[in-house]
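Dissemination and training. As part of the outreach component of the grant, students in the summer workshop were shown how a complex can be specified as a set of sequence lines and then modelled as a single object. The example used during the hands-on session is reproduced here so that future cohorts can follow it. Participants entered these lines:
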Amino acid sequence: MKTLLVLPIIVPAITDVCALLARRHRTVQRVLGVFGAAVLFGAGTLIIAEVHAHGIQAVQMGNWPAPFGITLVVDPLSAGLVGISGFVALAVTVYALAGIDEVREQFGFHPLFHLLLMGINGAFITGDLFNLYVWYEVLLIASFALLVLGNERKQLDGAVKYVGINLVASAAFLSSVGILYGLTGTLNMADLAGSMEPVRELGLEPVVAMLFLIGFGIKAALFPLFYWLPASYHTPPAPIAAIFAGLLTKVGVYSLLRVFTLLFPNPSGYTQAVLLIVAGATMLLGVFGALVQQHVLRLLAFLVISAMGYVVMGLGFFTTLGLAGAVFYVFQDVPVKTSLFLIGGLMERETGTSEIGRMGGLYQYRPLLATAFIVPAFSLAGFPPFPGFWGKLTLIQAGLAQERWAIVAVALVVGLLTLLAVAQVWGRAFWQSATVEEREEFGADDPRGVRALLQGPVAVLAGTLFALGCYAEPLLAFAHDAAVHLTDSGPYIQAVLGG
Amino acid sequence: MFYSLILRVAARVLVPLLLLFSLFMLLRGHNLPGGGFVGGLVAASAFVLYVLTAGVHESRRVLRVEPHTLLGVGLALAYGTGVLALLFGKPFLTSLWVDLHLPVLGDLHLGSTLPFDIGVMLVVVGTALLMVFSVEDRLPGLVEE
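and obtained this result:
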């Protein structure tokens, strides 16, 4: 049990070290990379089963008792995210075997990728606020390096914006941690939940909440701090962009969900209003950006932003139903975004262009790819029977129950506009027939093995999403369980502090 | 290479002194301020001084292993002590202690914190040297002629 909880951190750590030591042997690195991701996925599944069966689990690092040491805590939300990130990490590592060039592998793609996974998982399972900051730094360092790996001009351009804004985010996050520590004398999140009285008395609760919102909001690409995301996500190769899109913004919204439900369970009307306005603006601007984009990966990057708005909307309601919708939406959004970026990379590879208007003929020549595109794209638009529909349905039910008509209207309109955006991609890149000269030699001239490595993971992701949409009941129940644990933090605090 | 007679003569004395001092810092960290991180920084600064006086090529030869390897071995050592605790059924990173009674050395109180600290030290040295060496590889003349 004690061992199981640290596995999401030490499995990528060990893979990372082994890949670093074997950096001259490309094949060893590749095998290690896939093996490490597979073990991680296995560990994630076991953790989900354990949490599902026995409730929230906690373990004290170095045997230092909470709240003095660092605690790792896994509740249904953390467990679900660890399991899902293991799943998409495995898919992306397989895709990367063919999708990452040899030079990038030589310069340490595999160690960096697993370092990133370690940071992401650490952020999901830590129960300590400062430790959360440390995991953020681990994943940021790894993502900086992955973003510039290959040294292309556009990559450096994207990376400067990404690094710059993330420094601001870290500063805001660290300031709020400092204020909390100065007033309460603890950093353990469960302990903090019970020691927020001095902060409330001084009237600093909204200040701290807003600093957290800025810090995590930048990482989650919320309005008005999202502009770094479309400026940088289209620059690295598809597998790297896919893992960024699938997981990095999710760490931001996970932290928002965790911190706001645990530390500010009864927010002032002000905080709640800010969250809902931010959510609405994020949804709208994201989808507006996507509607005018011609570059396929940039368009997808704007859709990443739009989706984050839905999650923050669920948080903004501060009801169990709203949180259940938010958690379900995050769960299904990870594979949706990952597969969309992987498919975007394949679309560029097959047609040799990143302009949507100049693609075409994909439906005719790559029917499997076209089918795989439908599932995540229409899930994003909230089309039944794909999982995005169930997420949006729950969120909108929560909004109607609270009689927040404006945000519900925004969510519905954005759903329609998202449908328009993905339908445009579908119509132009897939249905439009290829031009005469393209028809001559369509597609990348990949050998069969390479094509299997690229299309296999995409097909598996799309298939899983389809299955999830058709049989959403277990995941909805799990998300609801997670939301119940978020609204009532009693069991979480008891698991960490004992007694 | 940075030719200065004073620096070269001073380095001849300072490099071994700094390396000894880094070991002192590492071991002192057991119960007092110090430890693997500071020790690693001191050891790295000794090597940086050597790079400045003898050049990167010569420094690589003296170091014998590549900085990457130092980094990897250091991480393996640090994680290894953490995982060792798991094998004994304790939470990750718990320190393990043994008391030995040896005829000549007397009573020894050995813990897994020392290998952990040595691991940290190797990581710090490896990282610092990796940076210095890469800057030199990319921008020859900044450190070497």
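Residues 267-488 of chain A form one domain. Students were then asked to discuss how this feature might be tested experimentally.
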